[in-house]
Amino acid sequence: MTTANHSQVTGFVLLGFSQVWELRLFFFIVFSVVYLMTVTGNLLIVAVVTSDPRLHTTMYFLLGNLSFLDFCYSSIMAPRMLADLLSRKPVISFGGCLTQLFFFHFIGGIKIFLLTVMVYDRYVAISQPLRYMLIMNRTVCGLLVAASWVGGFIHSIAQVGLTAQLPFCGPDKLDNFYCDVPQLIKLACTDTFVLELLMVSNNGLVTLMCFLVLLGSYTALLVMLRSHSREGRSKALSTCASHIAVVTLIFVPCLYIYARPFRTFPMDKVVSVLYTMVTPMLNPAIYTLRNKEVIIAMKKLWRRQKDLLDPLEH
């Protein structure tokens, strides 16, 4: 189909979760609480890692970066989604849709690459403890994080570049609560089979390869820990367990959405909510509840803020 006899779509109607007002209000309250907890938890970790000199290490630098990315990731769509839940007809412009798509995959791509860097950091720490500070120095760590940002940008700009060239001449109803590739390209008035293959290759295969590399790395780490002392093994296992939990929460939903043909399934929106809203909220809890150093640093930050406020109250 060509666009010769059709007008170009200038915006999309986001169908969201439900058209029933009572359900929309319920979702608004629930997701408002989730978003508030996400922002508070992730920014708290960033503040703690930044303020405590004892946490100025490679591992916590990467953890602080992940928390900042989780804050950005949830903020890309949550405020807009909350506003749309209270709107009678939520519409997003074509430019706004592409902008949301770009930042969603930009931050998401950085997170995937950063998690790969984090497992490499743990691998070096466990396999080369005496040379760890030499191998993972600040310069190397900074370069790896910068490479993650570059990788995320390349991944995202490819998504937007391919999608922006498609003709959209109707329908204009997007069956989601945010703009994403699987639903968006289905609205194009042209054959998108080849484009779907490219998108699955860019999204699904890259995610799958990173996931397999991470699984292989964690398997090698667990085997390596058998030769460590009980105390060292317990501490390393605690850190690895946190990483594995976060990796599972991020990669499994992404593989479900992107590593398959772009068809609509009943669980799609539930899985989308899981990795866009729930996972960024859970990540701080997963890391902080299992990490004594972070908990101690949080208590110190709390006492410091309390000491600063006490003179003002008197």
Could you explain how this protein is built, in words?
74% of the residues lie in helices and 3% in strands. The protein has ten helices and three strands, in the order βααβαααβααααα. It has helices at residues 21-51, 58-85, 94-127, 132-135, 138-164, 181-184, 193-224, 230-258, 268-288, 292-313, and strands at residues 11-14, 91-93, 173-174. Residues 41-287 form the G-protein coupled receptors family 1 profile domain. It is found in: Membrane.
Provide a concise account of the structure shown.
Helix content is 74%, strand content 3%. The protein has ten helices and three strands. GO terms for molecular function: G protein-coupled receptor activity; olfactory receptor activity.
Strand content: under 5%
The biggest beta sheet, please?
A: 3 strands, mixed
Assembly type of the shown chains? single chain
Q: What's the shape?
A: globular
CATH topology heading = Rhopdopsin 7-helix transmembrane proteins
CATH class label: Mainly Alpha
The residue-averaged pLDDT reads 85
- Helix share of residues? over 70%
Under the CATH scheme, which architecture would be assigned?
A: Up-down Bundle
Count of discrete structural domains = 1
Radius of gyration: 22 Å
Helix and strand composition category = mainly alpha
Order of helices and strands: EHHEHHHEHHHHH
N-to-C CA distance: 74 Å
Q: What name goes with the CATH superfamily? A: Rhodopsin 7-helix transmembrane proteins
For the secondary structure, the number of strands is: 3
Poorly predicted runs are 1-6
**Count of alpha and pi helical runs:** 10
Task: Give the strand order, joined by hyphens, for the main sheet.
Answer: 2-1-3
InterPro entries: GPCR_Rhodpsn, GPCR_Rhodpsn_7TM, Olfact_rcpt, Olfactory_Receptors
Function: Putative odorant or sperm cell receptor.
Transmembrane segments: 25-48, 60-82, 102-120, 140-158, 205-225, 237-258, 270-289
Protein name: Olfactory receptor family 4 subfamily D member 5
